[in-house]
Amino acid sequence: MNTTELAATLERLGEPFAAGFMRDTEATMVERFANGLNTWARVLPLRPYDGGLLYPSGPKYWNPEGMAVGWYYVTATPLDRGVFERKLAAADPGEREALVELERLWSKHVFPGGYTHSIPHYERVLREGFNGFAERVRKGMQTASSERGSRAGFFRAMTTTLDTARILHKRIVDEIERFVAENDVQRSNRDALLAAFRVVPFELAGGFFDALVATNFTFYLDGCDDLGRFDQYLRPYFERSVAKGELSHDHAVELVRAQWENVNAATAWNAAIGGMKPDGIDLSSELTIVCIEAARGMRRPNLALRLGPNTPDAVWEAALDTIVTGCGLPALYWDPNYYRAMDASGIPLPEEERHEFAFGGCTELMVQGRSNVGSLDDDINVPGVLERSLHGRLSTAAGFSEFYDGFRSDLAATVATIVERVNLWQQQKAEWQPQPIRSLLIDDCIDSGTEYFAGGARYNWSVINVMGLANAIDSLAAIRKLVFEERRFTGREIVDVLARDFDGAEELRRELESAPRYGNGDPEVDSLAHDLSRFIFTEFLKYRTWRRGAHGEGGPFVPSCLMFVTYVPFGRAVGATPDGRRAKEPIADSAGPYQGRDRSGPTAMMRSVTQLDQQHAPGTLVVNLRLARHHFRTPEQRAKTKALLRTYFDMGGLQIQVNVVDQEVLRDAVAHPERYGDLIVRVGGYSEYWSNLEPALRESVLLRTEH
Asked: Which spans in 179-303 are helix H?
């Protein structure tokens, strides 16, 4: 069977991505991926248009349900063995031959670990239109056609990807045109969308609605990930439409909320708003407030509000009004501390682009439209490393310093292993997992003729998740006090008790729990927190990534601590620890104290957290703060709440997110989850519906201290 027949057979079997991929086996890998997406775009199921404000809408479009091989979100998928076997069983001989050949080739494909959120260059889409992108591709092709190597293949892939965008654009317009409006509102929405799609995203956007339609189209084309500095790139169009009298504040809120609803329906991620330039110029506007108001009661996006000393009170008040709805949005970020942390950590941004930072996924630092940041590329489970050190070193250690030095040696070895693994994954991604859409949408891939994973993006670094810091800090504090200072127990006794998960040793477990705790402003514990975090963070920063961008050198391995819902499953991999935590119980939910152990008030908790080496962790140290609702009721109470948050930032904090959910409501929600389908809580790095959380996660949220 030749490749043309093979592709036709696979397409007939409902495998359009595989059909495109197999059509030209002599092409470069990025071309083959681009061909797969192009073929799939012709038959991709589109959610029916329903007369709403924005379209496309709903869940991700790149979802290979019912396909043995496909593309989900932003990457190719391994062979779905169940789907493959069902199709094979029903196939005729020719179809079986095609499926077996697909299995043979796809079994050789490599699927590296690590994750990569990203932010398309929305601003450039609005400024140039896709026709401008096509012109840059055309010029690149002219240059590359006379060269040897893969650049010509890269530009052919970009041409195919632009054609994919045109296919989707036409199908979307056809779907809207088929819609029969039932009322004037639906008719108006349909006509406005059709008018916008006659221009965008190929030509330049005019007003706010055109720009929003182009943004939404690009969001779905990319795979529904992140929206970047949303209020910044849309601001000129917003202000133009307001000045012309085309757009009111309330209608803008309605439109932005429609975008937020798409992010929520697609289970997508981050949007950053506000901010300041390094020279202190505030970047917030009326559109920033619109974005905050549109998020009230929403689960997604992870709205990241960048703040600075000159952020207007109106932005703060809008943020507090939205936070008190209980959705955990927006999370708050302090720009001056991020600028300092980027400098201290070697983030290679020139002065004119430093303010372009935004966040991908939960809250991983990246640069809008210009970066390829592994996020999260890997994790270090600090309590897991401590567990190995305890069983290998504690019984023979002559003093705490000896044990602690050994633990740090084990951490350093683990960091080196992680870096080696991530760099191998990066090499494999460059060969096996090209990203044609992101190569189109991220600078400087087109300009250099280099695929996104091969180093085409301008900036490249890796964000690593540092997990369970609070458990390690509390465990070390307990060992130092009870084993080496007071000599209440021997190292051997502690190791034996941990090995049997405190069975028959409840009194010892309670003594461990009574030791000083991180999160209460204890100077000795906080000093330990600083030393441990600084060691881990700076150990990662010693290394550079394999992937090199336009600057010719790898980026740093940037620490973060953002556990979203993973602190429960990662806890299951760790045995009992000397902080009194039993085997398989959750670890700390992010960079703050372990759930419920901060009992000295919010300022003491913040004082402890800011003793972490925050300036060497710009990947973001997520901190959860639960506040009672009464802190938002009166102007005086709101002023105190704002002052509390400002104090945290003045002490060096990078990020904080506030949950406002009454304890009695949570208790009832634990007992009767079926009654709380619409309840939203901030978990780790994002907000989630209560009904989507497993029981252990619900219990952990209940355990958090309510201040």
From this structure: 184-197, 208-222, 230-243, 249-265, 286-294
Instruction: Work out whether strand 71-72 and strand 371-381 pair parallel, antiparallel, or are unpaired.
Output: unpaired
Confidence (pLDDT) at 595: 85
Is residue 48 domain-resident? yes
Task: State which residues of the chain have pLDDT below 50.
Answer: none
CA-CA-CA-CA torsion sign (237, 239, 245, 251):
positive
Number of domain units in the chain: 2
Query: How confident is the model at residue 356, as a pLDDT?
Result: 97
Q: What is the pLDDT of residue 147?
A: 73
Q: List the beta bridge partners of residue 366.
A: 358
CA distance 372 to 389: 35
Point out the domain boundary residue: 74, 106, 138.
106
Is the distance from CB of 157 to CB of 28 less than 8 angstroms? yes
Q: Return d(Cα 289, Cα 272) in angstroms, integer.
A: 12
Specify the pLDDT at position 686: 61
Residues whose CB is less than 8 angstroms from the CB of residue 447 and which lie 6 or more positions away in sequence, other chains included = 136, 140
Query: Which phi and psi (to 5°) does residue 385 adopt?
Result: -65, -40
Cα–Cα distance between 16 and 156 in angstroms, integer?
19
To the nearest 10 degrees (0 to 180), the angle between helices 151-178 and 208-222 is: 120
Q: How many H-runs (helices) and E-runs (strands) does the chain carry?
A: 27, 16
**Domain region containing 485:** 376-409+426-458+465-546+556-596
Q: Which token pair is 672?
A: 């009767």
Please give the model's pTM, rounded to 2 decimal places: 0.94
Domain contains 97: yes
Distance from C-alpha of 365 to C-alpha of 118, rounded to nearest angstrom = 10
Q: What is the pLDDT of residue 491?
A: 97
HSE-CB of 582 using CA atoms within 13 angstroms: 8
pLDDT of residue 115: 84
- Given 106, 123, 158, the domain boundary residue is 106
Compute the 3-state secondary structure of the chain and give helix, strand, coil in percent, each to the nearest 5: 55, 10, 35
Residue 258: inside a domain: no
Burial class (CB in 10 A: 0-12, 13-18, 19+), 506: exposed
- 113 assigned to some structural domain: no
Per DSSP, what are the bridge partners of residue 396? none
Q: What is the pLDDT of residue 685?
A: 64
